Amino acid sequence: xxxxxxxxxxxxxxxxxxxxxxxxxxxxxxxxxxxxxxxxxxxxxxxxxxxxxxxxxxxxxxxxxxxxxxxxxxxxxxxxxxxxxxxxxxxxxxxxxxxxxxxxxxxxxxxxxxxxxxxxxxxxxxxxxxxxxxxxxxxxxxxxxxxxxxxxxxxxxxxxxxxxxxxxxxxxxxxxxxxxxxxxxxxxxxxxxxxxxxxxxxxxxxxxxxxxxxxxxxxxxxxxxxxxxxxxxxxxxxxxxxxxxxxxxxxxxxxxxxxxxxxxxxxxxxxxxxxxxxxxxxxxxxxxxxxxxxxxxxxxxxxxxxxxxxxxxxxxxxxxxxxxxxxxxxxxxxxxxxxxxxxxxxxxxxxxxxxxxxxxxxxxxxxxxxxxxxxxxxxxxxxxxxxxxxxxxxxxxxxxxxxxxxxxxxxxxxxxxxxxxxxxxxxxxxxxxxxxxxxxxxxxxxxxxxxxxxxxxxxxxxxxxxxxxxxxxxxxxxxxxxxxxxxxxxxxxxxxxxxxxxxxx
Length: 505
Known about the structure:
Layout: H1 2-8, H2 12-22, H3 43-48, H4 55-58, E1 59-62, H5 81-90, E2 94-99, E3 103-111, E4 116-119, E5 121-122, E6 126-128, E7 134-138, E8 141-151, H6 152-165, H7 172-175, E9 180-185, H8 188-191, H9 193-200, E10 202-206, H10 209-223, E11 229-232, E12 238-240, E13 250-255, E14 259-265, E15 277-284, H11 288-298, H12 304-313, E16 321-322, H13 323-335, E17 342-344, H14 360-387, H15 400-407, H16 423-434, E18 447-450, H17 458-471, E19 476-479, H18 485-504
Parallel strand pairs: 2-9, 9-10, 13-18, 18-19
Antiparallel strand pairs: 1-4, 2-3, 3-8, 5-6, 6-8, 7-8, 11-12, 11-19, 13-14, 14-15, 16-17
Helix pairs in contact: 6-9, 10-18, 11-14, 12-14, 14-17
């Protein structure tokens, strides 16, 4: 009976409380003193949370300090979005939120030895990205960062349902119950703030979206896993690279529905409590929204996933006019241009004789090339403008920035090499990362491509990498956690807020 009851509790904390109650110590064991709205399992909720096959088959687990991030679980059990929200609301640690128009993303940082039982999939769209989990050490304590995501529209529907069902006593503005403070970015940070407060007792502190991205980059630079930064080779293979050194100034190209390009400079040396100076250099409305909108107009694809799958199967060269189509291969070589370089997007469709020589997958592929190359060309122009800038003094190898980073030893990453303090060794590494210098002392500007458009989109990674290779502006750099940059920035800001509260209390 005890085993069956344990399997029905939706969280490790709920299980601990149930055990405490059985021992006659109800409410007296640590976090178990929270109320039901905090997310703990009552007898009635336990019946609703019963899983087929037991909790072990339905949950993915995050490891303690002795192992790597948890692996995804499988099984027949299901957890509703409401149950997942209640569990996260009650979870110990620090939360960061990024509530976009399509996806809501969450990062949870808690003690590495704190058990985290969570389903690999929950609700209709929810996912626990166990493969992205990593561990770090802050103030001498091991922590683990965990990542989840789900549909924003579904989240909003569930919150409305919870708000309608909430009694006046559960309203923090009426009952005096303490709300959990969470920093959040994205449009939902403003639009859903009141809803989160009344439905979940979560007080949202809005964080400017671009600032959250920059803060997320600084967080990953200081604490991220060893294989965080990678480039894509001509064959499509991913190759891990070290962080550029010096890192600042760098360019961040955020490709979402539209495209924003930021210049990031060095700021505070503390990646958790400090800030970074950044400037929005420009952008373009030709982004992921353009790709999906035109794909829906010109093909049978109705979702972003369907459009990407079409593009993967297509050949853009059957639609686009290439340099070789105009000059031939020998002529292209004489001009010093790659024969496969796009000369005119959709140029072959101008000729009525070629209108039957392509399929809709080719159209999707051509759309992907057009949108992705637009970002590459714009990024290159801005990177050239920044290239002559002097790196920030606190980001030079061997100075306070590098020393500060070495204090935060992370089990899952390699620290900057002492050899970077050697000018010769440092110059070799920088040349490998940033490409050949145009003249002695010239610095290539690191360019990072991030944003939801690039998530699980290797074809665009390849297009960007080839474009940068052709334009001789150094490698295009990508991040494993690129889609969670804003979330990590908010996580750091929440941690900072909690840290200040602890010091003043």
